[in-house]
Every structure is written in structure tokens, then in C-alpha cells.
Amino acid sequence: MTLSQLEVGEIGIVKEFTDLEMSVKLMEMGCLPGEEIRISRIAPLGDPIAIHVSGYQLSLRKFEASTIVLQ
Amino acid sequence: MKADIRVALVGNPNTGKSTLFNILTGLNQKIGNFPGVTVDKKTGFCQLPDGRTAEIIDLPGTYSIYPKSKDESVVFSVLADKAKGLTPDLIVVILDASNLKRNLLLYTQIADLKIPIVVALNMIDVSEKAGIDIDINLFAKKLGVQVVPISARKIKGIDQLKNAIAHTNKIALQQDTIDVEVIAPQIIAQIKDDLKIDNSYLALQLAHQHETLSYLSTEQSDRIEKLEHEFSFHSQKSQAAETIARYNFINDLLYDTVKKPETAHDETVSNKIDKILTHKMFGFVIFFAILMFIFQAIFSWSAYPMSLIEDLFIWLQKVISNILPAGPLVSLIVDGVLAGLSGVMVFIPQIAILFALISILEDTGYMSRVTFMMDKVMRKVGLNGKSVVPLIGGFACAVPSIMSTRNIENWKDRMITIMVTPLVACSARLPIYTLMIALVVPNRNVWWIFNLQGLALTAMYLLSIVSAVTVAFVMKFILKARERGYFIMELPVYRMPRWKNVGFTMYDRSKTFVLQAGKVIIAVSVILWVLKSYGPGDTFAKIDQKYHQPQYVKTMTLDSLTKVIASEKLESSYAGVFGHVIEPVIKPLGFDWKIGIALISSFAAREVFVGTMATIYSVEGDADKMQSVQEKMHEATNPNTGQPVFTLAVAFSLMMFYAFAMQCASTVAVVYRETKNWRWPAVQFAYMTALAYTASFIVYHWLK
């Protein structure tokens, strides 16, 4: 299951990444393995999404979210 | 001013870094460039409690010293490059106390570079309110640095921070955060050895960033490249390992020092606002309402100050022509330099208003929501959610808008944004549109409420957006991407705008605009003045002689005689000669040589058009006598056919030309400055001119 499959309000815990380049950028922003992520909202046109992670709100595209594998 | 100590401010975006900088330095600041890059370098001075003066450098906000954009790359190069003399003696790392975890990543990276550090724990009031309990003493002890809780917004803790800066040891005393050498032991050891560096983390960063660091010599960079292959160093894997190690350190630190309630208060308020502002339907409605408001404000609020500035220049021109003896020098100052300057200065109110409003939108956190909402649409046409900001700004002026593309990380997205921004109908096109529409479009209402002239103007604005988006879409297929596009962006908590910051931004941007655009415009207007005031050989003398003959002097009033002489001189001046030379080229668009002169003279700046038209149709004064220019142009007839010059077809053809043509030297200059390559402005100029010609041609022949 990846982050892009979650609905608004659902929570997941990061397990690993499928894309090294993206993972480096996501980890810098606090999306690390073991970290809890909650989907805050989805943009009006369905993409990107906003997530709550490491105590703040981060937005990322659905494609980017699909590289985050959840536990 | 000479400084005793150099202090750099480093921190994540949205942590109140600029606010702190403004408090520390007051108005005592200047903007320059970091050597070799066009990123603004803000410096200022601050008096320390012990009497010493500190020079404060505001470094661009960044989440990490691994740069993702042009701005961010400055941070590491300033900290690492000892040769340029910019390396700070001390770094103040600003951490958002309400969001410590992510903020601490940058701290741990900076700390490992072993430059003395003071931590400013900003927004301590916000975090206290949210119930976050930080054991500051333990926190400071674990890091081995002074930690000062402050609230930059409420101006609290600033004296303590200054004290801490004054009392910081010259030697870095902070604790190591992670074991850097474990990440890539061999290459670190070898780089330290080869480049005579004693800091392991600096060596590791050189391995990562050597390709983009301009201060390394080619040999050094090649050497590092060879070492990378030798030890099969993988930059991304190494960075991933490092980031995980750093967050482990941070989690341990926060576990011991910070107690957090289960849910934070602040976020729910922000969430409620977001539910409305990024709502499926209301989100866009509100966004367009705000856009409309910005347009209204730019045009209506600026009208009065703009006419004040115009009047000031007219007054100045009069004063100078009165006190100085008439001659070429006065003419150069008055008709060349002052006329050119007033063309620039008149836009200050619009620029200031636009930047004030944009900085309010950014400061409150709304702009990142716009980016969030628009990303999908923008991506379809080859742009990025972040392109929305420069495109909106383009309605006022392309120059500062192009400068604001720097925070677009992706190279291709940024280039396309830069290439299409000048197509957006900027404020300099407005006088031309108003003049042309007033000439040919009847001033009456259709469907009760819609004024026909207003509709024509709206159509021109819509056209500009459509053309920008279309060109972007085409460029999406032409430009090769250098790297993968991504969109990982913080959505900061909503906050009240900091009015002082808004004021500073207004002042900064207007100043930059005047200095940057001013230089070019003055130069070009001087050249144009020469071309307009002198003719080949003794043609001017002959014209003077001709009109001194009795049949003219006796039959015409002095006033109309001067006008006739002026217009005949213009026709035979170098500018007039050019006008005649290009006439065959522009004839298919419906333009005669007079419009040709206006086209040439408004190359530097579109707004020159109305003034040139005024001169050509021998009307005294310039744009301030719009009515009379309009009347003259209305009466102007083609001597060969006897038909009016400005027909519907000609007027719309002209508007099309101005809508698409790159007639703005300042934009050309700023595109060069931002892209560092003449090819970009050249291509932009070429494609826009081609579009302008085609559009004018089609419209002229369609309406003829």
C-alpha cells in the first residue's frame, strides 16, 4: 500500500520508498521511515495532496506520494 | 561601516528569519548580489551590547544545505568559501519552536561544519500557546550552544540574542551531531588530505556539491570527481543515509527535551481556514475574486500617485529648461534623460502596490495554497504551481515577476515561466490599449451593463493569458528536461501579515526596479533622443531655413510654425529615416513610417509609444495630453488615399503587435541576468516578434 491510496483523514506509517531520488527529498522534509502521515486534504482538482507529517503540513503530488510505501 | 564580527542568519523558510533580520538591522540594510550568482544578498549592521558592530547577512531560507533551487545553493557556498571573505564568524540558526523536528535537520548540518553557532528559538510564544514544553537548558546543553528563546513578531528576546552573539566563543563549541565519517570514510579522508581541509562534513559536502561550487578550481573539482569513481561514492545514497542518521539524532534529542500535547491548537485554526480557501468550488472563486481585487487596486490606487509623479517630472523639466540656457544639453536632459526617467518612475506606485499585495498573500501563507490548487492545471501546460505567482505579477511588470521565478526548483519549469511571463499584459501596455480602443471602439453599452470599450480591454487581458499558456504548452514539447520535476512544498500555518515586512518588500522591490530598469531606460532614451534630434547632413538646417522664408513666417502663427518644423525635423531625423527604412516591412501590418518610428522608439519601453505618437503628430507635451493625441490621431489621414490612418484594422493590428512583441529592454536585461545566457533573451525576442508580426498581419487583413 502506498501513501497515494489513502483517503482524506486516514493515517499511515512510512515503511520505505520506491524511488531513491524522491526519497532523499522527502526525507529532508521529515517523511522518514517510521514516521506517521495523515492525509489532510486533496487539492480541488484531485492532485496534489496535503499531508500532516513531523508536526507540519506538506504538499506533494500524487505521483510522489505513490513512491512512499506504508507499513 | 566597518564591522567587528560577521553574523549569518540561517534557517528554514517561514521561520521568521526576515523578520528577525529587519529587527536586528532596522532600516540600516542594503541589497547586493552574492558573488557570481544573482541571488539577492541582504546585509545590514547591528550594534552589540559590548559596543562592537556586527554585520548581519541574511541567507536565503532553506530546509537543508543540499540545495534544491538557485537561492538555496548560496547558503553552502557562503559558509564554505573561505576565499571570498564572506564566511561568517558566527551563525545564528533560527528554529521554529513550534516545528522543531524538521527545523533541526538544517541545524545539525550547519553545526557539523564547525562554525560558532547561536540558536534563536523563534515563535516561542506560539509553541507555548500550543502547549509544547521545551526544556531549553537541557536542549542547549545537549547541543553545546547558546539557545535564546525569542519571538521576532512580538520583538521579544532580541536583547538576549544580541548578548548571546556578543558572548559567543570564536571557536565552535557545539557537540557533534552524527558520526559523519561513517557515511563515506575513504572519500572524506582523501578529500581532507588533498584539499587540506580539517572538517569531515565540509569534505563530504564537497564530494556532493563540487560540480556546482564555483570557487573550486577545475583541478580540484576533477580530482573530487575521480575520487568519487574510485570509491564508488553515490551522492543520493550517501545523502539518504546521512538524513536518516540526522533524524535519529533529532528524535533522541526531542524525546529528552520536548513534551508535546497530543493535538496542537494552532493547526486546527489553520485547518478550518484551509477548508474554505482550498474548497473544491469556493477555493477557485475566492482566488479569482482576490485576483480581481489586485487588478482593481493596481489600477485605481496607483492613478493618483502616478499622476503626481508625472506632474513632478513635468515641473522638473520646466524648471530645468527655464534656468538653463536652451541648447543641446538642456534638450538632452529634458527630452532625453528626464523623459526616460519619468517613464520608469511613473510605474513605481503600481510596482509597490503589486508587491505589497503579493507579499501579503505570501506572508499569510495563502500563496502556497494557490500553488497547491493550481499545480495540476499548470502542469498540464508545462508550468508548475509555483508559476502562478510570476504570471499574476506579470500583469504589473514582467521584470520583478521574472526575478520571482527563482523559487521554482525545476529548471525546465522555471525557464518556461520566464519565457512566457512577458506575454502577460503588463501595465506598460495599458496606455497603448486605452488609446487605441478609445480611437476605434465606440463608447457605448451592450447588453445594458457591458461597456464596449471595457470589453475590448478585458479581451486584450484574456488574450495575454491565453497566449502565455499556449506558448508554455508548445515549449513543454521543445525544451528538454534537465531533471525530474517534483512538487514537495511546505504549506505553512496561516498567519497575520507582518506589516513591517510588507513595507520592506515594497521598498526593496521598488528600489531594485528603479535601479535595474532605470539604467537601461536612461541609456536607451538618450540614444533615442540623439536619433530624434539629429538628422543626416545639414537637413535640419535646411528645414529651419525653409520655414524662415516670409511665406511661412507671415501666414502661420509662431505656435503652429514650431509644430510644423518639429514634425518635419522628426521625419528627416535619423529616427525618421529608420521609420522610412522599415516602412516596407511593416506596411503589410497597416503601419506607416510614423508608427514605424513609434515602434522603434518604444523598443526600450512600450510606454514610450504614446509619447512618440504625441511628438510625431506634433502635439505639445506628451502622454498627459492624451485627449489631444487621440484627436490628432483620429484626424490623421493617409496623404495618398485620403482615408483615416487609424482605422479599426490598424488600431487592432497595433494592439496585437504590442500584445506580443518584446518591446521592453528591461525585461531583456533581466532575462539575461536570470538565465546567464544571451540565447534565452534572444530566442524570447525572436519568438515574440514573430508572434507579434503574424498576429498583427492576420488581424489587419481580417478587419481591413
TrEMBL record, chain A:
Gene Ontology MF annotations: transition metal ion binding
SUPFAM superfamilies: C-terminal domain of transcriptional repressors (SSF50037)
InterPro entries xrefs: Fe-transptr_FeoA-like, FeoA, FeoA_core_dom, Transcriptional_repressor_C
Residue intervals of the Ferrous iron transporter FeoA-like domain: 1-70
Keywords: Iron
Protein name in UniProt: Ferrous iron transport protein A
